[in-house]
Amino acid sequence: TGNGxxxxxxCECFPNFTGSACDCSLDTTPCMASNGQICNGRxxxxxxxxNCTDPKxxxxxxxxxxxxxxxxxxHKDCVQCRAFEKGEKKDTCSQECxxxxxxxxxxxxxxxxPGQPDPLSHCKEKDVDDCWFYFTYSVNSNGEANVHVVE
Length: 151
Prior knowledge:
Blueprint (H helix, E strand, L loop, with lengths): L3 E4 L2 E4 L3 E2 L5 E2 L17 E4 L2 E4 L18 H14 L8 H4 L3 E6 L14 E7 L5 E8 L5 E6 L1
Parallel strand pairs: 7-10
Antiparallel strand pairs: 1-2, 3-4, 5-6, 8-9, 9-10
């Protein structure tokens, strides 16, 4: 495949290639997910391609999940109880919802904006009183979750 030389009808592969035809790349760069893990920690990198071992996840780096809750829906109840002391987790908030740092901001234009180094989700969810509330959710390079909520 151009990734080695033929000696006596046997391929001798260049560095970072393997296989009988040197067609298997050992480079894991194409398997790197946005969180810095190989195949998002949900698969193995084989010949430069992710083989997702968790069937819910798919895509080139095992990051797509059609059946998973989005970040906003997943954290809505905890944000609601921490910021406004109401919602389904109001009574269990201190046990279940302390996994992120929370900052209250005055208005939506004070929320963090895209362009920062950490992946950022902008969320608009309804609370128990059928009112909209807005927050952002991001995880920094140390793995710490940060939530900014509009008061």
